[in-house]
Automatic annotation (TrEMBL):
It comes from Deinococcus petrolearius. This is Elongation factor G. GO terms for molecular function: translation elongation factor activity. Residues 10-290 form the Tr-type G domain. Belongs to the TRAFAC class translation factor GTPase superfamily. Classic translation factor GTPase family. EF-G/EF-2 subfamily. The gene is fusA.
Length: 418
């Protein structure tokens, strides 16, 4: 049961974007940040560092365009409902495998980006296995549909053969390579055609006649896959009844969260094609913090475990997952709060280091600004200024609470070497 205090969490998605190097993770992330824009631009950081162009700065440093966790907002197309999408940086290179593992711990769902001219490449395979190990629900984005050699079928086939997963295409490309014009939403049976070079103007229409048979066939397969995970849908299916769009979306969502269905989308991030629909799919199919299993911790010196469901009114449980040195404010400790509420100026207990630490200021990082906040609630991610000792992977709990260590994020088995 979701309490009133937890209800904001239904509109939260904490996601990572994972890819083989060059598949288009940076471009996809950049476009996502472009489309989500900045709803917040109010925060000021003192110490002479007011709102700054974060993206520009990161680019100058040549590292990455995002912070370890970037908070964006997205209004799902066709609705008035606004969602918070926290994008957690997942390093793409195999050298950062342990960092990838760490990031897997703090996200609830992932978008796997593939280069549709290359199919599933080795690093994508590694990241996919890591996501499997951490039980992370996924959707896949077959990017670069405009590129010579692009083939949606290649990606679908590779997902089946190289990843051993059953792809559930929820979209179909209209044209491929230089003829790539748009995307058909198989669930809603609508065509989205891009009508300008920038890919920002979209016309929605009925499905062009030439794609009708293909879409009918793909939709039937999708309904069949969804019926496998949803009893109500199965009943309808057996009686030959057509599910409503809402029922189909709900069943695919259930299958995705249970990791039985992997929705596959397509597009071209570089041409801005498909990115808005990708964001809609993140909302439709990836879980909120309430839909993933509660994080567990072990009580110090015992075998006793505790669960920390996503609840801002619960006991504080957070994980530090990345430390960054900031030229203006010093040490930034990126945290995910699983349960409870972290207050600026409060004391927390670092259970990994057996140390009481003072929380200074709290920041939420947006694409090109940072917002100072007074608290970070369950399900939220942000940066803490002022923690002196916290390292990556450390557990933060309430001062005076029972000493609990959150589930270890050490690599549980040897890293696959490629
Ligand atoms: P990353 O290494 O996964 O972060 O990949 P990038 O986003 O940096 O993209 C790698 C290269 O592929 C860059 O030169 C991009 O411009 C290009 N690229 C990314 N998305 C697309 C796309 O949709 N179509 C085409 N043709 N090129 C793309």
């Amino acid at each position: 049961m979701t309490t009133k205090a937890q209800s904001y969490l239904t509109h939260f998605r904490n996601i990572g974007i994972a890819a083989h190097i060059d598949a288009g993770k940076t471009t996809t992330t950049e476009r996502i940040l472009y489309y989500t824009g900045r709803t917040h631009n109010i925060g000021e950081v003192h110490d002479g560092a007011a709102t700054m162009d974060w993206m520009e700065q990161e680019r100058e440093r040549g590292i990455t365009i995002t912070a370890a966790a970037t908070t964006a907002k997205w209004k799902r197309s066709g609705t008035d409902q606004e969602y918070v999408v926290n994008i957690i940086d997942t390093p793409g290179h195999v050298d950062f495998t342990i960092e990838v593992e760490r990031s897997m711990r703090v996200l609830d769902g992932a978008v796997a980006v593939f280069d549709s001219s290359q199919g599933v490449e080795p690093q994508s395979e590694t990241v996919w296995r890591q996501a499997d190990r951490y039980g992370v629900p996924r959707i896949a984005f077959s990017n670069k549909m405009d590129k010579t050699g692009a083939s949606f079928e290649l990606v679908l086939g590779d997902i089946r053969e190289r990843l051993g997963a059953i792809p559930a295409p929820v979209q179909y490309p209209m044209g491929q390579e230089s003829e790539f014009k748009g995307i058909i939403d198989i669930v809603r049976q609508r065509a989205h055609t891009y009508t300008n070079d920038l890919g920002t103007d979209i016309t929605e229409s009925d499905i062009p006649a030439e794609y009708a048979d293909k879409v009918t066939e793909m939709r039937a397969a999708l309904i069949e896959a969804a019926a496998e995970v949803d009893e109500d849908l199965m009943m309808k299916y057996l009686e030959g009844e057509e599910p409503t769009v809402e029922e189909l979306v709900a069943a695919i969502r259930k299958g995705t969260i249970e990791k039985k269905i992997f929705p596959v989308l397509c597009g071209s991030a570089l041409k801005n094609k498909g990115v808005q629909l990708l964001l809609d799919a993140v909302i439709d199919y990836l879980p909120s913090p309430l839909e993933v299993p509660a994080i567990r911790g072990t009580l110090e010196d015992s075998e006793e475990t505790r669960e920390f469901p996503a609840d801002p009114e619960g006991k504080l449980a957070g994980l530090a997952f990345k430390i960054m040195a900031d030229p203006y404010v010093g040490r930034l400790t990126f945290v995910r709060i699983y349960s409870g509420t972290l207050q600026s100026g409060s004391y927390v207990y670092n259970a990994s280091k057996d140390k009481r630490e003072r929380v200074g200021r709290l920041l939420k990082m947006h694409a090109n600004s940072r917002e100072e906040v007074t608290e970070l609630k369950a399900g939220e991610l942000g940066a803490v200024i002022g923690l002196k000792d916290a390292g990556t992977g450390n557990t933060l709990i309430g001062d005076g609470d029972d000493h609990v260590l959150l589930e270890s994020i050490d690599v549980p088995e040897p890293v696959i070497k490629l």
